[in-house]
Amino acid sequence: MFKKLSTKLIFAYVSLIICLTLIVFLLLGTLLRDTHISMIRETMAKDTSLIELKMKELGIKTPARFKKEIDLLSRIMKLRITIIKNNGLVIADSEVDDASRMDNHLYRKEISSALEDKSGYSIRYSNTLKIDMLYYAHKSSDYVIRLAQPLYEVESSLNSLKSLILNVSLIVIITSILIITLISIKFTRPINETMEFALDFTKGNYNKRILNYSEDEIGILQNSLNKMADTIVATLKEHIFEQEKLKTTIESISDGIALIDGNKSIIISNNSFLEMLSIKTTLENKQYFEVIRNRKLNSMIEQSLKKIEKSSFELQLQNERILEIILSPIQSNKSLQGILIVLHDISERKKIEQIKSDLVSNVSHELKTPIAIVKGYLETIDENLDNREMTREFISRAIDNIDRQNAIIEDIIKLSMIESSTDFQNQIIDIRNIVENCIEILSPKIQQKGITVKAKFKKSDSFSISGNQFLAEEIFFNLIDNALNYNKENGTINISGEVLEDKMVFKVKDSGIGIPEESIDRIFERFYRVNKGRSRTSGGTGLGLSIVKHAVMVQQWNISVKSGCSGTTFTIITGK
Ligand SMILES: Nc1ncnc2c1ncn2[C@@H]1O[C@H](COP(=O)(O)OP(=O)(O)O)[C@@H](O)[C@H]1O
Ligand SMILES: [Mg+2]
């Protein structure tokens, strides 16, 4: 009912005081009434003895004489006096003139007691006087003398006593409420402060402490609570620091990492994990299968949880990335606590492995083929030495193949030199000049193919940049050469240069056959050609764009390619 401790205390004390006052009130009232009545009774006993004595002295026998005497005595004693025969008939009554008309009094309580034990009394309510009356009866030899006295004196003194007790009680109650309120406030204040502190602490206000503490038990409790709070805060800080350390460490790892607990909820994960599995929502405290949408991975996690054994496997994702996944169960006391998932992106490694194996087979193929062809020609010549025309023809073809092989070997050497050498000095080179030289060198081919080449360089701009002459020549020669080789008849080539704030942008745009979308990412690989036959007839080695890519990388430039059915554009961005 009452929530506050102080209210409870006040309520208990006030109830106690009210109860005590009531008990005192009732006990004292009854006690006083009883004492008063017994005092009146004693007086009445003396009075009856006196009356008896008087009656005997006078030797009264007749009712008239009784009446006369008791009227006189009644006036003196201020009591009602009744004389009753032993059979209950009233002989005389000081208040009633004709006693013979009165009821038989034999069964009145005080009369019957007096007949039995010499004296008796009773208290009855008098309808005539509307008040309690005390009746006292004493048995004389032939009759019973009964005295009656109204109790209004007793009642009035009792009433004044009651009002006194009531007033005193009220004063006591009010004073005690005040005192108890003050005491309970004094007592409950530190308890309230302690409670407020505890509530604030649970809400996360860890800096608050209890300031107002005494040296009693509550003070000791408050002191201990403050110390406890200090310890909790220190431990919490340490815990947060440890967590931050763990979080930072996990985030700094490029591998995807996640920890699943025994209830299959993800409790820790890093950004790489989300990125690798293309997860857009937050993972923490969700069940792993709610967020990981890869069936194979989920079934492997399920198996690992069941079998409690480490497993690793490769997983190809829809976006072509290949992940190496390691699932390590974490155990404590032989029960499974969770599973650590590590995702390692091996797409690049796989790609390099593929390129390497392709390269080995490509190099051997590219080098072997011309030799086999030349051998074939030489064997045919050997068998047909007399046929001069055929011999001349085959010798010329063998020379072509040896030239081709020579070109391949030269490009391989050039590429490995660019790849391995670090001493490509930077000079001031003029890209406009380099482009013009390349066009000059390639002009017989341009004319032969009927291609229109336009170089658009704003006259007022300078295209002198810091770079390496040899590498820049390789880049633009190969790009313009390709634009010629893979162009359509009577096609066009537009070469442009643009000076921007902190960089220069060069474009080689052709109106050629274009590059299929699936091949765009591969054209910079060694020996990769979209169409082998076309590349070979145009004298390509399949190494041109690899040389371009490395030459660009060495100078920290950038190259990009866009291609469609209307042609291809290579864009080179250089520094100034
Ligand atoms: N401008 C271009 N238009 C269309 N295809 C091109 C272009 N440039 C390069 N390619 C494609 O890229 C392949 C690789 O080019 P490159 O390394 O120079 O070797 P190649 O010796 O075959 O020219 C070519 O075989 C060709 O299929
Ligand atoms: Mg080429």
Task: Spell out the key features of this protein.
binds adenosine-5'-diphosphate; 55% helix; alpha+beta; five-stranded antiparallel sheet; binds magnesium ion; 576 residues; 17 strands
Describe this structure in words.
The structure is a single chain. This protein has helices at about 5-60, 65-75, 110-115, 150-200, 215-250, 270-275, 290, 295-305, 345-385, 390-420, 430-440, 445-450, 470-485, 515-520, 530-535, 545-555; strands spanning about 80-85, 90-95, 120-125, 130-140, 145-150, 255-260, 265-270, 310-315, 320-330, 335-345, 425-430, 450-455, 465, 490-500, 505-510, 560-565, 565-575. The chain is α+β, with helices and mostly antiparallel strands and about 575 residues long. A five-stranded antiparallel beta sheet has the order 2-1-5-4-3. Strands 7-6-10-9-8 form a five-stranded antiparallel beta sheet, sandwiched between helices. Strand 4 and strand 5 form a beta hairpin. Helix 1 (about 5-60) packs antiparallel against helix 4 (about 150-200) and helix 10 packs parallel to helix 16. The model has no long low-confidence stretch (mean pLDDT about 90). The structure holds adenosine-5'-diphosphate and magnesium ion. Magnesium ion binds near residues 478, 481, 540 and 544.
